[in-house]
């Protein structure tokens, strides 16, 4: 099964052009399913070991029931997506039956994304980071550039950490996001505060930079990881005294919501976010409606 999982991952990365993160998540989920099958390798009916070719819907249901005890419906849904994709691929390549063809995914409650208001985003960006980084001016300038670009362009954290200096056109005030989710390149505008923050970081970086070099690095010149950016945002939230648990992806939600509240059209927001479907972008309309109702409640004399 391990060998087939690896072949499946290779196909996803090449033919399906899935992102590296998606492939890694699917492989991790499938190996966890394999772990479950090994640990529960005797069926309740006849005490025989489960052969790979004998995996049926009940094995998958029992596995998902185990996952459900410790995880959310969204996690269960993702695990089932991985298993269904794997067996679809296996059926197509080997002709062997797909045991989960008729299985349906559990319905997941749609949650509105967490967002900060505009003043809170400003407080987050302006929060003094001196206590975090000592007297390291380059680190403070880099951290500010990270927050400015995340909010200014609505990038995914993996897209931010993947940027090279050649991807930023200062004259046009645009950033080229290369091979984002779904391996689609897109151009996104950058605001002047973000461009200024990038220039200041580039001038202060303690290592030599090049057009093909990474934009967001540690102080030794190595490309910063998404996890490091997540920790930075968490520290900045505490420094700014903000209670909303915003992640780097939350700043992407802020970007879209604030644009929509200011009158930007959904199609433009969809293009800037890199969503393949407008339905994905439309969830921000629910956040906007909530904002409009609050404005109405505060402003209308007979609300």
What's this, in brief?
With 303 residues, the chain is mainly alpha-helical. The protein folds into two domains: 2-94, Tyrosine recombinase, N-terminal domain (DNA polymerase, domain 1, Orthogonal Bundle), CATH 1.10.150.130; 118-299, hpI Integrase, Chain A (Orthogonal Bundle).
Topology summary:
Layout: H1 2-14, H2 20-39, H3 57-70, H4 73-94, H5 118-126, H6 130-133, H7 137-153, H8 157-161, E1 168-169, E2 174-177, E3 186-189, H9 192-204, H10 226-240, H11 248-261, H12 266-273, H13 278-281, H14 283-299
Antiparallel strand pairs: 1-2, 2-3
User: What CATH architecture label of the largest domain applies?
Assistant: Orthogonal Bundle
Indicate how many domains the architecture comprises. Answer: 2
What is the number of E strands? Answer: 3
CATH level 1 class label of the largest domain:
Mainly Alpha
What's the CATH topology name of the largest domain?
Answer: hpI Integrase, Chain A
Q: Helical residue percent? A: 55-70%
CATH superfamily of the largest domain: Intergrase catalytic core
Q: What's the mean pLDDT score?
A: 84
The largest β sheet comes out as: 3 strands, antiparallel
> Are there runs of 5+ residues with pLDDT below 50, and where?
none
Strand fraction equals: under 5%
Question: Between the first and last Cα atoms, what is the distance in angstroms?
Answer: 62 Å
Query: Count of helices?
Result: 14
**From N to C, what is the helix and strand string?**
HHHHHHHHEEEHHHHHH
Q: Tell me, what's the shape?
A: globular
> Could you say which structural class the secondary elements and strand pairing correspond to?
mainly alpha
Strand order of the largest sheet: 1-2-3
Rg, Cα atoms, Å: 23 Å
């Amino acid at each position: 099964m391990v060998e087939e999982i690896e072949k499946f991952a290779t196909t996803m990365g090449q033919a399906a052009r899935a992102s590296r993160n998606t492939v890694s998540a699917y492989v991790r989920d499938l190996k966890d399913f394999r772990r479950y099958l090994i640990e529960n390798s005797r069926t309740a009916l006849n005490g025989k070991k489960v052969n790979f070719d004998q995996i049926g819907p009940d094995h998958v249901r029992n596995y998902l029931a185990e996952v459900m005890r410790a995880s959310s419906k969204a996690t269960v849904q993702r695990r089932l997506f991985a298993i269904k994709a794997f067996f679809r691929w296996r059926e197509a390549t080997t002709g062997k039956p797909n045991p989960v063809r008729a299985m349906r995914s559990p319905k997941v409650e749609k949650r509105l994304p967490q967002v900060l208001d505009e003043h809170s985003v400003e407080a987050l960006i302006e929060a003094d980071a001196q206590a975090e980084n000592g007297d390291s001016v380059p680190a403070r300038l880099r951290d500010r550039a990270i927050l400015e670009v995340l909010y200014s362009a609505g990038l995914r954290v993996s897209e931010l950490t993947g940027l090279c200096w050649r991807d930023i056109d200062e004259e046009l005030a645009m950033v080229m996001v290369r091979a984002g989710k779904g391996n689609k390149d897109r151009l996104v505008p950058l605001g002047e505060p973000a461009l200024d923050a990038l220039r200041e970081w580039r001038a202060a970086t303690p290592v030599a930079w090049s057009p093909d070099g990474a934009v967001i690095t540690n102080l030794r010149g190595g490309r910063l990881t998404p996890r490091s950016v997540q920790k930075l945002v968490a520290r900045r939230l505490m420094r700014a005294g903000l209670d909303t648990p915003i992640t780097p992806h939350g700043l992407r939600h802020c970007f879209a919501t604030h644009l929509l509240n200011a009158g930007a059209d959904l199609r433009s927001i969809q293009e800037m976010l890199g969503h393949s479907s407008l339905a994905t972008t439309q969830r921000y309309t629910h956040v906007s409606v909530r904002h409009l109702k609050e404005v109405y409640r505060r402003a209308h004399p007979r609300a």
